[in-house]
Amino acid sequence: MSATELPTKEAHILKGHEGAVLAARFNGDGNYALTCGKDRTIRLWNPHRGILIKTYKSHGREVRDVHVTSDNAKFCSCGGDRQVYYWDVSTGRVIRKFRGHDGEVNAVKFNDSSSVVVSAGFDRSLRVWDCRSHSVEPVQIIDTFLDTVMSVVLTKTEIIGGSVDGTVRTFDMRIGREMSDNLGQPVNCISISNDGNCVLAGCLDSTLRLLDRTTGELLQVYKGHISKSFKTDCCLTNSDAHVIGGSEDGLVFFWDLVDAKVLSKFRAHDLVVTSVSYHPKEDCMLTSSVDGTIRVWKK
Amino acid sequence: MGSDEEDFVFHGTPIEREEEIASRKKKAVAGASGNLRTLPAWKQEVTDEEGRRRFHGAFTGGYSAGYYNTVGSKEGWAPQSFTSSRQNRAGARKQSISDFLDEDEKADMEGKSLSASSQFDTFGFTAAEHSRKHAEKEQHERPSAIPGPVPDELVAPVSESIGVKLLLKMGWRRGHSIKEVRASSDARREARKAFLAFYTDENTKETPDSLVSETEVETSLGEDIKISESTPVYVLNPKQDLHGLGYDPFKHAPEFREKKRSRMSANKEVGFRKPLSMKESLFGPKSGKIAPGFGIGALEELDVEDEDVYAGYDFDQTYVIEDEQPARQSNDNRLRLTSKEHDVLPGFGAAKNSDYSMERFNPPIIPKDFVARHKFSGPLEAETKPTVSAPPEVPPPADNNLKLLIEGFATFVSRCGKLYEDLSREKNQSNQLFDFLREGNGHDYYARRLWEEQQKRKDQSKLTLDVKVSPTVQKMTAETRGSLLGEKPLQRSLKETDTSASSGGSFQFPTNLSDTFTKSASSQEAADAVKPFKDDPAKQERFEQFLKEKYKGGLRTTDSNRVNSMSESARAQERLDFEAAAEAIEKGKAYKEVRRATEQPLDFLAGGLQFTSGGTEQIKDTGVVDMKSSKTYPKREEFQWRPSPLLCKRFDLPDPFMGKLPPAPRARNKMDSLVFLPDTVKAASARQVSESQVPKKETSIEEPEVEVEVENVERPVDLYKAIFSDDSEDDEDQPMNGKIQEGQEKKNEAAATTLNRLIAGDFLESLGKELGFEVPMEEEIKSRSKPEDSSDKRLDRPGLKEKVEEKTSSLTLGSEEEKSRKKREKSPGKRSGGNDLSSSESSGDERRRKRYNKKDRHRNDSESDSSSDYHSRDKQGSRSRSKRRESSREKRSSHKKHSKHRRTKKSSSSRYSSDEEQKESRREKKRRRD
């Protein structure tokens, strides 16, 4: 593919957050976007028209991550108040609060059937919460990490967590085994390919590393951006042909998956790009920044 | 009438009548009350007691200002206490003089009377008076139902009893004992008779005197006997001298003891005379002399009975003295006997029981062999040894046998000690062979030999220390290290010598350029660099290959070129080879698994030496960071991790550790992280041998993984076994259908089977939860919970509906038509299931019906059979599973893409806000379901 087919054209600017925006996520079908930030609010947008639909307020501190269920009826959020909030989208009501983390919660994810929420926390643990029953105790606590867990990804049979101790750990529930891939550098963000064979790990040495999940081999290394002090995001396009990464100088980079060649880079924001999210179907992208804006990019 | 009044003239004040006064008072009271209540303050008037109006204290000085109109009496508002007079009515008191006397007169009456104190109240009159007074007080204090004096006044206590009065009449006097009185009274009566007879007949015969004296003697003896029985001995014979206890001055002179006794008796006689003379002078002829016995009280007067008629006669006294003496003598004899027998002081007797028993500890017995001085043998022996000087050398004796004997014996003595020599000397005194021990033939040689043996022993001790140190020294040497490691370093050393001789200049340059490397490493590298040049001129192809490998070294190749003289054509060829190598490296960065697999066999073909050398170079190079990171990191480790059963349930997976006890939680502390560090260092420092072993370990590690997978998969729950058993039966029935059907149908089948499995799994989970078990293991539990089944089953119906709705929402299947078809097909199954649930039958029957239902479903849905074949095939082997997993992932991804496209179409059609769109979507879903 050529650079022209990549979404590098700004379509809309979503303004409303009164502080840094820490995460921007598409929902399952890509029609709506949820953003959260340091102003302790979660906002629901229609990114294709640049309209703010709803604002959710209950968090006591900054909100670090959000994730929507596949049926678009509920979502979960986490942040500095050490709790995981389970919300109803239409009513804006907090259905339940999951308490148990000893520090800030950095990331949350639903599984495919939306029956379980997995949260990654500052207390070096992954906690699994049950959404079906009314219990507020964690189903399981995974505390084999040696340092903060920054990111978490779920598949049908596995839980994958990336940590600052330099490891990407895969917990296989079918076999009952833990596989620890040590990259030697703090892992900031992890993302899984659409075919489920590869894991993309963003490290704090300004490098993105592509790993084979079955063998743990290093397939490719992507460089050029700056990622040393802040939490930046990385992801793959829906076609698994390109790798996208945000930079601390406000740029967004596109690499070729196979050649590790920088196809294009452009200035998306004036400050740190905190989050990058690609549309599940179309060639559309969301980027959020510390300057409080969310930008929608299209061809 | 008017005219009458004018005529009369009145003088003075008229007399007031009682009626008028009473009416006035009443008016005053009424007025006061009325004024206080009704009239205001400025209308109130001050009135007198009789109701008359008066000024408000103007002339009285304001004394009664607050009295009238406020309180009812002059004293104030204090109410008086009420006392009833019922009790006082009945009381009728007698009047006495005290009632009419004043206090002063009463005091005067009391002062006049005199009374004795309790000490001198001999007659008891004072006590009687006190008791009477006390009784009177009590009478006054307490009320009495019977009027009149209390009986206590009539009855007064008496100080003397009747017994005392009788004794007094019989002759007893206070201060005397009862016994003595009786005896003295009898004697006195007889005395009176005798006296009367004497006075009447002065000139009578002597015989009555002798009779009287005899009777007196008998009485005196009786008295003495009684006294001796009652009183102890030391009271009768008190110690009158000033000698010490047990001392007898008359021990050897009994004569003097008798004289002393006579003196004592004479003193007594003198004592008796004196009081008699005094009494005669005081009391006159009537009183006469006092009888012997206890004295009378000083205050009491002498009675007639107390006089003694025979006081003047000395004869009686002499008899008494003589009688007392033998008793004393007998006592003395007893004391003497006791003293002689028991060796005890006279006057004392030995005690019967002696509690004190002293333990005696004899001094220790000194053994005969004991020597006062302590001799230290040790230091003397030690001192003697160094002082011994080396004996002079002596030639061996002529006899060889003797020589051998002496040498052997010397060694034994040096080992065992001198005792051995002494013992052998004693035993072998008769034996001529051992004459050398007794300064015989060969003694000098023996002494020298012994000295030499001792010196050797000392040297051996030093040698042992040296021997211990030597092996460490040997290890440090290069030769030993090389020998231990193997043959390779020997080869290197030989080559190194040649290279150093040939190229001295080149050896120095790499050291300067690479300061970080050690000398040994640099020398090895130089050798490696030089190797191909000798072989290469003959074969250019090999040379090119070596050059490619050397390019990784970089600087060293140029140095080698300078040193070795090469032709220009060869240099040009080298440059071309370098370019080719660079291109290869660039391509290598973008390599994938396939390229790695192709490259590895090439390395093996090249040979062990080349492979190892390449590895070492790469490790030492610092420029190539990516290659370094690729090999050192990422590093994969595997641990056992146990998911909780609820987590597996939520992900619709069987628990791999079903039936096992939870393991103890492993403690991953900071120490564990520290432990990992030395492992990395060792891995980096690993040499050729270890690198070759690594792939073997990897293969060994892979094998248990496969086994683990097989074991875990083979441990599903009984409920899941039921599902799989049904699938297996289907496989047997229709094995051929799977192969025939096309790919498109396979996808649909896979989706359908997943739906069926999900429904069944959730149904079973709900059953388990409601029954109270996470996963029911045994049939017995189900049989026990039969009565609950009916209620639970009724609850299951809405649960099933809810689950179906959730799944339909969550599923991402393709066409709408297929969904509607499946729903229609499933509806009869659900209805039949409900009927079964409603009926309360055994679990076995239920299972069978479930199986039939599932079979029916499978038969109805022909597409699902082939998908079950896929699942059954997965069981066969782990290798095939991995491949199929990838294929299944690809299929799923394709499904997702299709579903995404369809969703986009739907979303594009909608034009309303999110809330309205959600509502419409829900309505549409409901319509579709209907």
Automatic annotation (TrEMBL), chain A:
GO molecular function: MAP-kinase scaffold activity
GO CC list: catalytic step 2 spliceosome; Cul4-RING E3 ubiquitin ligase complex; cytoplasm; nucleoplasm
Gene3D superfamilies hit by this protein: YVTN repeat-like/Quinoprotein amine dehydrogenase
Localization (cell): Cytoplasm
Domain of life: Eukaryota
UniProt keyword Repeat present: yes
Parts of the chain that traverse the membrane: none
Keyword Repeat in annotation: yes
GO BP term (any one): mRNA splicing, via spliceosome
Predominant place of localization: cytoplasm
Mapped WD repeat ranges: 14-55, 56-97, 98-130, 266-299
InterPro entries (UniProt xref): WD40/YVTN_repeat-like_dom_sf, WD40_PAC1, WD40_repeat_dom_sf, WD40_rpt, WD_repeat_MORG1
Signal peptide: none
Assigned keywords, A-Z: Cytoplasm, Repeat, WD repeat
Family: Belongs to the WD repeat MORG1 family.
UniProt name for this protein: Transducin/WD40 repeat-like superfamily protein
Taxonomic lineage: Eukaryota, Viridiplantae, Streptophyta, Embryophyta, Tracheophyta
Gene for this chain: MVP7.5
